[in-house]
Design goal:
Largest sheet of chain A: 7 strands, mixed
Chains: A alpha/beta (299), B alpha/beta (528), C alpha+beta (411)
Number of helices of chain C: 15
CATH class of the largest domain in chain A: Alpha Beta
Helix content of chain C: 25-40%
Strand content of chain C: 15-25%
Strand order of the largest sheet of chain A: 10-9-8-7-11-12-15
Distance between the termini of chain A: 54 Å
Radius of gyration of chain C: 23 Å
Order of helices and strands of chain C: EHEEEEEHHEHEEHEHHHHEEHHHHHH
Oligomer: heterotrimer
Strand order of the largest sheet of chain C: 3-2-6-7-8-9-1-10
Number of strands of chain C: 12
Largest sheet of chain C: 8 strands, mixed
CATH superfamily of the largest domain in chain A: Nucleotide-binding domain of ferredoxin-NADP reductase (FNR) module
């Protein structure tokens, strides 16, 4: 029995680039967005060396820690801002926890950018409504900032941000900046606390995020909504915006999340019906999701 | 997995027997991938997920490839095998001299070969100790051999307290075929097990009372029972009730039947595995030699006391078990795939295996047992192989009453057969890991209707109280569970068994059991 | 391809196999302990010619598992990738005797890993492409049908119109050789001295034999895949929850169907160190790594490999999200996913072909006796409004007959 012979294949072309090989990127800075407290998991933003990486809002990177693996992390910084790349990570599982513990100077592995992002050109001249539940604001922030860098191109920009408790609301330190740039901000917390409820600016409600919808005065013809958050929230919120605000499903845009491994449409982990979240998404329109729902719920 | 090394490996795949459950599937190993053999009466072209993952054991990071030793109070350090062996042999000889051979306890395993079990008997005799058993005897009760073909061709089958798809997939497969052919299948169980839809009849009983519900048996009716029956205290009753019947005990470990029939069970003055651990904890045993067994798996508190109570604990194993991590000396063992010998499956089918993969260390469990016998023993030979005959003993489970309207029982469905091996794979481990990752402190499982009545949420906590004490754990909900029952996940066997007063010892089978206990279930008291 | 079909005498084929074996390039069917396996063969005399198909798919030569994706070293906690040049170049090999169903599977996988499904060649799996390029498939058209064969239902055989490198048909006087790819052309140039012109009637004889095989299938098959009905029901999501619950009830979540299927490609990725490199202390439950020895608090120094392992979309852990979310909670839902990939129109359009080539291996590999045929038949019954196909006795008779046939027929 002879041993298999190792010899270059016919054609002897140079080895193609390894699509599974990540680049190693240095952590420049670290900010704790949400401290661990009770049932709240810590949320940390890492700013990474951007180098020559280019990406669109809505795309994501497979960010990883060697020995543990990689996870998809949406990009929370706008492509139009050079220098650094911001990833906001919530410590939900093993890899995400290790990422939130990275310190300036540490190395993080990145592959990407992956996925289909938001088609910015379609939003010019429109009113834009952001509905962000919990950590869902992190993927939307990159888009929000990109729009704000060219604020005059868009109409109203509204941001409705809700979370389980006031402690879990994200990027509070940036809200003033956004409002100064003309973002209409409203907040919601499922469970309030005395201090939080005493304030009224930004306007807020204790309850589910969708309770902010009825008072909105939106022009359904000119409004595009971006929704991101827990799957159940997306489904309910989209349904309410269609019914009560009369927005067309094709003007509701969301980003979906699934367990991923390769991020390039090969391993199959992120498939929903026939869509690969990593390649066909993560950005989807609500009408696309309704079509998938006939076979399997995408939320 | 050191793929580069494997890519260069030549040769054709060789076959071996799966090391996980007692089905005894035959598989080819090609590199670190396992494939089912089609031309084999057990596997017939199929494996379960554990079998498909078995190849991953060969180069697993969790393998023991060298020896380890520790200085008192220090962590384990790698050390050459010869050095560690010398130290173990010297220490053992010293203990034997000072305290006598009977101060040494030997725990064997149901995942070693028959020949290795025989080597352990020779070791025990040479050391002059009667104490030889394995925790992996776990409720085994003997019945005459019965084949998978018998199951497939049976016209009436009763399944007693077993979720076959998880415990013995090849038996389940034959049951599916029998049902497809029109056999009458009856499940006597306190849960709606998977395959329940195949059953003509489903007799629902309280856990611990399955035998009461058995009723009259047809002369040619086949009865399949699992350790769920024996670990709830009904072992000797099962032996008596099913004597002379066509019955098959579904063995939990690859060679459970083989090693027990080869004499790996307590005889004469020998302590059982459970008794050995207790004796060690009380200082009555001075040394524990453990060959491919893992007492810490289900009894971590008792095992910690046992290891603390002896002067020397030696663990020989192919994978880094929890017990290995706590031992004084660890020596490398090998996997079944790397050995030559005999394995007997749940049918009683004897399978000869030859090495299908290169071992990672020079010695295995059998070699070490033989060498220890030579070094430390006095050459005494063991007597004839004692027949395994469980005595009457054990007590059935309780019944719920007014004050304690629920029954708490051990959920063996979540038992993956050899957790230590599972944790050394990648694919099967990913599935098994979910339970630990979803419920870090452990869990109990309830019927959703009961949870609703108690206003419990999924993964919310629940308090289970018996006259002896109470525990609070996250609740997992599953519609298959009988209302009025609460199921303890096997990793919590000791902790919950002790707290609830359900951990008991079956004096007939001489194994630890979890006697179904009448309990109260409630939402935990809100803390200030 | 250049010229028409070619011809090999029987001696010519023997010589071809002998030369390939001597060059260390031959992979061919070999009997091992009663099973047929495709193995590297050093002596052409070992090649088995009397068989229908193997139980284990030769796809392991194109998609071996585990397979190294990335290797890296960690020194003082800092990782560094190993240079790509350290990876093995795939060996040039020829797989002889592969069947049409498996060739169709190879073509399916080749397209899948190229990134063409998304129009993204930049995401092509270069390793797979290199291995495919280095592997020439000499397929042999089946002229016998085994009890579990279903290629006729799925367009996967007994002969293919395209997608093969060399397709051989054994005729009365010798072997018809059809060459269907540049890889095949290169092999033909290499063995030009053995190849002749096909006789004029050879094509017609081949067609007649193929037709006879198809008729034999129609007459004797006990397993079929009613693909048209199944595709209609799958694509529109018309099978109800009760159906999938029933399918899930019989699924043992063993993973076998995907591991033996020629068109399945799902994989897992784990980071592993070398044998024996894990530590003894067990991480707290919530932090247990996905693979043994994996990092739970820090990455240990040493050499690590990120490897591809075979996976199956029907396993619960396949979709589990960190924090305990399971988008497909029940086995039945996951079964729906698998059969959607195999049978739906949506996937057919994406992948360029039906996801099932009719090899029948899932029938033998399924512990719950639920091959794709049984699933698809259930869909046809639902579509046509007929109750479950046959009463248990009738099905049992058929099963018994097939079993008897199987015990005579060699693998």
């Amino acid at each position: 029995m002879t041993a298999p012979v190792v010899r270059p294949g016919p054609g002897a072309a140079p080895a193609p680039a390894n699509v599974y090989a990540p680049r190693l990127t240095r952590v420049l800075d670290r900010r704790v967005e949400i401290e661990a407290r009770g049932a709240s998991r810590p949320v940390v933003t890492l700013s990474l060396e951007r180098g020559d990486l280019d990406y669109g809002p809505g795309q994501f990177f497979e960010a990883g820690v060697f020995g543990a693996g990689e996870i998809p992390v949406s990009i929370s910084s706008p492509p139009g801002l050079p220098g650094a790349l911001y990833l906001t990570v919530r410590a939900a599982g093993l890899v995400s926890t290790l990422l939130t513990q990275k310190q300036p100077g540490d190395l993080v592995s990145l592959r990407g950018p992956c996925g289909r992002g938001f088609p910015l050109a379609e939003y010019a001249g429109r009113d834009l409504l952001f509905v962000a539940g919990g950590i869902g604001l992190a993927p939307l922030r990159g888009l929000l900032w990109e729009l704000l860098l060219a604020r005059e191109r868009y109409g109203r920009i509204l941001l409705l941000h809700g979370a389980r408790t006031p402690h879990d609301l994200l990027y509070g330190w940036q809200w003033r900046q956004w409002r100064d740039l003309g973002v209409e901000l409203q907040l919601a917390a499922d469970v309030g606390d005395e201090e939080w409820e005493k304030e009224d600016d930004p306007p807020r409600v204790v309850g589910f995020l969708t309770q902010l919808f009825p008072k909105l005065k939106l022009d359904p013809e000119r409004t595009t909504a971006f929704l991101c958050g827990p799957p159940a929230m997306i489904h309910i919120a989209c349904g309410q915006l269609v019914r009560s605000q009369r927005l067309a499903p094709r003007h509701l845009v969301t980003t979906l999340e699934r367990h991923m491994k390769c991020g390039i449409g090969k391993c199959g982990h992120c498939i929903v019906v026939d869509r690969y979240i990593c390649m066909d998404g993560p950005v989807f329109r609500y009408d696309e999701l309704l079509a998938l729902d006939r076979i399997e719920p995408p939320w | 997995m050191q793929t580069a090394e494997l890519a260069r490996a030549p040769g054709r795949p060789a076959s071996t027997v799966c090391p996980f459950c007692g089905s005894g599937c035959s598989m080819f190993l090609s590199g670190t991938a396992s494939y089912p053999r089609r031309h084999h009466p057990v596997s017939e072209g199929a494996l379960c997920l554990r079998g498909w993952s078995a190849g991953e054991l060969l180069r697993s990071p969790a393998r023991v490839v060298t020896a380890y030793r520790r200085s008192p109070g220090e962590p384990l350090q790698p050390t050459p095998v010869e050095r560690a062996f010398d130290e173990a042999a010297t220490c053992l000889a010293d203990i034997r001299r000072r305290h006598g051979g009977a101060s040494i306890g030997i725990l064997g395993s149901a995942r070693i070969t028959v020949e290795e079990a025989q080597a352990l008997r020779r070791l025990a005799a040479a050391l002059g100790t009667p104490h030889l058993d394995t925790l992996q005897r776990a409720g085994y009760v003997p019945f005459p051999p019965l084949s998978l073909r018998d199951i497939e061709e049976a016209r009436r089958i009763t399944v007693l307290g077993a979720n076959l798809t998880v415990r013995q997939p090849q038996v389940a497969r034959r049951l599916v075929r029998a049902a497809d052919r029109g056999a009458r299948v009856r499940f006597v169980h306190s849960r709606r097990v998977q395959l329940y839809s195949l059953a003509a009849e489903h007799v629902v009983t309280q856990p611990g009372h399955e035998l009461d519900a058995l009723g009259e048996l047809d002369p040619d009716e086949l009865v399949l029972l699992s350790s769920e029956i024996t670990l709830s205290g009904q072992g000797s009753e099962a032996v008596a009730r099913l004597a002379g019947r066509r019955a098959m005990f579904l063995t939990d470990y690859a060679n459970q039947r083989g090693v027990i029939e080869a004499g790996l069970h307590p005889t004469g003055e020998g302590l059982s595995a459970w008794e050995m651990l207790n004796a060690a904890a009380e200082g009555r045993l001075k040394a524990l030699l453990i060959f491919a067994d893992d007492p810490f798996e289900f009894f971590p508190t008792l095992s910690a006391r046992a290891f603390a109570g002896v002067e020397l604990s030696v663990v020989v194993d192919a994978v880094k078990t929890r017990s290995a991590g706590r031992a004084d000396i660890v020596l490398p063992g090998a996997l079944l795939a790397e050995k030559r010998g005999t394995v007997v499956n749940t049918e009683g089918r004897v399978q000869e295996i030859a090495p299908a993969a290169a071992a990672l260390a020079a010695w295995n469990e059998g070699d070490i047992a033989a060498e220890l016998a030579r070094r430390v023993g006095d050459g005494t030979e063991p007597g004839p192989v004692p027949v395994y005959e469980p005595q009457p003993g054990g007590r059935g489970g309780e019944l719920p009453g007014e004050e304690y309207p629920f029954l708490a029982a051990l959920d063996t469905t979540l038992f993956w057969n050899s957790h230590a091996l599972i944790a050394a794979t990648a694919t099967a481990w990913r599935e098994a890991r979910s339970l630990f990752a979803d419920f870090p402190p452990g869990c109990v499982t309830l019927n959703p209707d009961d949870a609703r009545a108690l206003k419990l949420q999924y993964a919310g906590s629940v308090t289970v109280t018996s006259p002896s004490g109470s525990i609070t754990l996250p609740a997992r909900l599953h519609a298959r569970m009988l209302p009025g029952t609460v199921w303890i996940a096997m990793p919590c066997w000791e902790r919950c068994g002790v707290k609830l007063g359900a951990l008991d010892y079956d004096t007939g089978l001489r194994v630890p059991i979890f006697r179904p206990r009448a309990v109260r279930v409630s939402r935990p008291q809100a803390r200030a | 391809m250049s010229g028409g079909p070619r011809w090999l005498t029987r001696e010519g084929l023997d010589a071809l196999l002998a030369r390939l074996a001597q060059a260390g390039e031959l992979i061919a069917p070999v009997m091992v302990e009663g099973d047929l396996l495709y193995l590297p063969v050093g002596d052409a005399a070992d090649v088995c010619h009397d068989y229908i198909n193997s139980h284990l798919p030769p796809k392991e030569y194109l998609l071996p598992t585990p397979e190294l994706l990335v290797a890296y070293r960690v020194t003082d906690g800092a990782p560094e990738l190993e240079p790509e040049s350290e990876r093995l170049a795939p060996a040039a090999r020829v797989i002889f005797g592969i069947r049409s169903c498996d060739v169709a599977g190879a073509a399916y996988l080749e397209r899948y890993f190229s990134g063409e499904l998304f129009g993204r060649p930049d995401t092509a799996d270069g390793q797979f492409a290199a291995r495919r390029e280095a592997t020439t498939l000499i397929s042999v058209v089946c002229q016998r049908v085994s009890p579990t064969c279903m290629c006729v239902c799925c367009g996967g055989g007994p002969a293919l119109e395209r997608g093969y490198d060399w397709q051989l048909t054994e005729l009365e006087a010798g072997w018809l050789v059809e060459i269907g790819s540049p890889r095949g052309e290169r092999l033909a140039e290499r063995f030009a001295d053995l190849l002749g012109e096909a006789p004029a009637a050879a094509g017609a004889e081949k067609e007649a034999r193929v037709r006879a095989t198809v008729e034999s299938f129609q007459a004797t098959a006990t397993h079929r895949v009613p693909t048209m009905a199944a595709t209609r029901m799958m694509s529109a999501g018309r099978m109800d929850e009760a159906f999938w619950r029933g399918v899930g009830d019989r699924c043992f979540e063993c993973g076998g169907c995907a591991f033996v299927c020629p068109t399945c490609w799902c994989f897992n990725v784990v980071d592993v160190g070398g044998p024996g490199t894990s530590v003894f202390e067990e991480a707290p439950a919530a932090q247990r790594p996905m693979a043994p020895g994996g990092a739970s608090d820090r990455v240990r120094d040493g050499r690590w490999e990120r490897v591809r392992l075979r996976d199956n979309c029907m396993l619960a852990g396949f979709v589990r999200q960190a924090g305990g979310g399971y988008p497909r909670w029940t086995c039945g839902e996951r079964c729906l996913t698998r059969f959607f990939h195999k049978l739906s129109q949506q996937f057919q359009e994406r992948a360029g072909a039906l996801g099932c080539t009719g090899c029948g291996r899932c029938i033998s590999a399924c512990l719950g006796e639920e091959g794709i045929d049984r699933i698809a038949e259930g869909m046809r019954d639902a579509l046509t409004g007929v109750g479950r196909a046959s009463a248990p006795d009738a099905r049992a008779k058929a099963a018994a007959k097939a079993k008897a046939a199987a015990s005579e027929v060699r693998p």
